[in-house]
Amino acid sequence: MRKLLMHACCAPCFVYIENDLKENGLKIDDETYEKVDFTACFYNPNIHPKVEYERRKKAFEKFCKLKNCKNVVIDEYDLDGFAKEVVNNVGPNKKYNIRCEYCYYMRLKKVFEYAKENNFDIVSTTLTISPYQNHEIIKKVGKDLEKEFGIEFIYCDYRVHFRDGQKMARDLSIYMQKYCGCMFSIDNGKWVY
Ligand code: SF4
């Protein structure tokens, strides 16, 4: 059975996917599933403020404990590094067109590094359950990293299950945030990107 390292952007986005991985396997496309040995990986160093980062990290750990799910937390907080990179390298004619592109790249690159060091066969991410994320860019970033690291990136579109996952998280009393994560995504408690 192949080993999957599933990047978890947060616990609520992982709830549906964890259950699906256990019950059916990794969703390759609408008709194909592959049984995998999976580990969840929390690496989200740009959540603002730090207290919110700790809240989301704890929610992830609580959920994994509850479900007896193998997991790793790469507990590195680097808001300054994120903000500097956005200021210097995001915008027209710069390295990244939009800040979310850099954000996906920065998070997934670290997950790929961990996957390489620990002999995983596949990387994927729970970001793809959210209808608020830019799926085309996630797919492109994942495929670029696949080439760089020689580890397969599997993009799975779980958007149709977003609300199911939110309900499952609420039923388990898992903490649910009101914004994506970085300082640019906070707007009086509304979801913004
Ligand atoms: S809005 Fe979300 S995906 Fe985009 S840069 Fe901020 S934290 Fe990352």
Summarize the structure.
By secondary structure, the protein is an alpha/beta fold.
**For the report, how would you describe the main beta sheet?**
5 strands, parallel
Spell out which ligands are present.
Answer: iron/sulfur cluster
Mean pLDDT, to the nearest integer, reads 95
Structural class: alpha/beta
Uncertain residue segments: none
Helix/strand order, N-terminal first? EHEEEHEHHEHEHEE
Strand content is 15-25%
| CATH architectural group | 3-Layer(aba) Sandwich
The span between the termini is: 37 Å
Number of strands: 9
SS field, number of helical segments: 6
Principal-axis shape: globular
CATH superfamily: HUPs
Give the topology.
Blueprint lengths: L1 E7 L2 H13 L2 E2 L5 E2 L1 E7 L7 H18 L3 E3 L5 H11 L9 H19 L4 E4 L9 H15 L2 E2 L8 H10 L14 E2 L2 E2 L2
Helix pairs in contact: 1-2, 1-6, 4-5
Bound molecules: iron/sulfur cluster (SF4).
